[in-house]
Amino acid sequence: MARTPSNMLPLGTQAPAFSLPDMVSGETLSLDQIQGKEGTVVMFICNHCPFVKHVFAGIVDLANDYLDKGVFFVAISSNDVENYPDDAPDLMTKVAAEQNFPFPYLYDKTQEVARAYDAACTPDFYIFDKNKSLVYRGQLDDSRPENGIPVTGNDMRSALEAMCDGKEISVTQKPSIGCNIKWKS
Prior knowledge:
Layout: E1 4-5, E2 19-21, E3 28-30, H1 31-34, E4 39-44, H2 50-66, E5 71-77, H3 89-98, E6 105-107, H4 112-116, E7 121-122, E8 124-129, E9 134-138, H5 154-164, E10 177-180
Parallel strand pairs: 4-5, 5-6
Antiparallel strand pairs: 1-10, 2-3, 4-8, 7-10, 8-9
């Protein structure tokens, strides 16, 4: 397993706009359409990465806990599906159904959105406030496949709680670790 860290986009960065096909609903969705009243969590994931598979239940729980608080979640897959067919759009639909995703799962075929977010790995997480300003980027928590630490989402939960309560979010944030995004050559 490759261990690639997040690039850690600078805090305060405005969320790059996007409009991508959702493999769940079949619609094309833009950031403006899915922005949450209190904030938006953008997650770069994929179907096959063991780091992502390890946190599937954790991100579903996190989304279910915060959707009612006005935080919207969106997952994006940007991997090269020619060389990594397990990440193909039809399989994204299947994974979203199997995992009961309560959020859209968008396909970034051109990889332009991943580049705009400076995404490096799967999973890579970003929290934007209601003004689309980046307030958190980094890991879900300290759990990794095979390290024995349970998936809790504590790092992101702390940031989301602070954001929803109008409190200061700690700038001490750990990068996510995962498989590198599979860039097209």
